[in-house]
Every structure is written in C-alpha cells, then in structure tokens.
Amino acid sequence: MKQLIIIAAAAENNALGINNDLPWHLPDDFKRFKALTSGHKIIMGRKTLESFPKALPKREHIVVTRDKNYSPKFPSSVVHSLNEAVALIGDSERAYIIGGGEIYRQSMAMATDIELTRIHHSFEADTFFPEIDDTVWELVKEEYHPKDERHKYDFTYLTYRRK
User: Fold this and answer.
1) Structurally, how many domains does the chain consist of?
2) How far is residue 43's CA from residue 96's CA, in Å, rounded to a whole number?
3) Does the CA dihedral 97-98-103-106 come out positive or negative?
4) Which CATH number is 108's domain given?
5) How far apart are CA 59 and CA 161, in angstroms?
C-alpha cells in the first residue's frame, strides 16, 4: 500500500518556521528526519527546496511549484500540484511530505501517517503546521526527549495514523 507520511517539527503554537528557516536547532530531530526519509522520495514546496544548501543525500526530491518554468538548483522532479507529486509514488512505496506550510495543509487530506516532532515551546513564525484533527488521526506512539546540553527545548516525537 502506498504510504504518504507527513514529517514535520512544530512548536506548541504550530510554528514551523520563519524567513524560510527553523527557529530552533535540535540535532536528534535532524538525525531522526534523516533516518526516516533516507532511501525514500520526499515531496516539498519550492521554498522548502530552496532553503536547502544542497540536495539531501539518498533521497529523490519532488518539488511542487506553480511556476511552469521553474528550474530547481539541484536534480529534482518538478510537478505543478500535490496530486501530480503523489502520482510519482508507486503503489508499494513510502514517500515523505516535508513541507512547507501550504504543502502540509494540502496533504492532510491524503496522508496516511504523520511523524510530528512537537517542540515544547512557542515561537514567532510566518509558517504554521495545520491542526491535527483527532477525529481523523489517532496517536499511536509518543517518545519524550528532555532538553539537554545539545537541545535547548524539550520535545516529543508523535506518530499518528489515519483512523
């Protein structure tokens, strides 16, 4: 079965980012993101792709943009809607939807799972994660990570499945 997994880190106030950057630095969350997404297709919006200094290794990039003449800065499949992006995922494949805010909003209706890192703090932001509707999503796993010398904030990994 095709798996479409939203993967994101969001603050208590659903903040995702500001000025195309993350307002926090959580090395263990980056490691988890890499472990989960490596070897899979990743779907993102243009601004998310452009926020990367280089292509993410061992992942096939699919970028969604309205710009019909868009030329990505590193090898990526360019599509013009989320449905076109999803059509590039095989029936037995797993793909990760990695942002940004608009792509997350559009993908909530079609995703099978959500891997959310909830940062236990509120941040000023210009991009926000959509609300998770608990009539649609069931929390199936949670793993708390206290703040430490490498992590300024407490956070919890939350795994949701569509009911």
Assistant:
1) 1
2) 6
3) positive
4) 3.40.430.10
5) 23
71: which residues sit within 8 A by CB, 6+ positions away? none
Q: What is the pLDDT of residues 93-143, one digit of tens each?
A: 999 999 999 999 999 999 999 999 999 999 999 999 999 999 999 999 999
3 state SS of 131: coil
How many whole angstroms from its chain centre is CA 88? 18
Return the DSSP state at 124: -
User: Hey, how many other C-beta atoms are within 10 angstroms of the C-beta on 98?
Assistant: 24
Specify whether the CB–CB gap between 80 and 65 falls below 8 A.
yes
Angle, CA of 155, 160 and 163, to the nearest 5°? 160
**Element counts in the chain: helices (H) and strands (E):** 4, 10
pTM to 2 decimals?
A: 0.97
Q: Hey, what are 84's tokens?
A: 């076109």
Q: Distance between CA atoms of 107 and 144, rounded to whole angstroms?
A: 26
Residue-number span of the structural domain to which 145 is assigned: 3-162
- Reduced to 3 states, what is the DSSP secondary structure of residue 36? helix
Phi, psi angle pair for 76, to nearest 5°: -155, 150
Could you tell me if 4 and 89 are in contact, meaning their C-beta atoms sit under 8 angstroms apart? yes
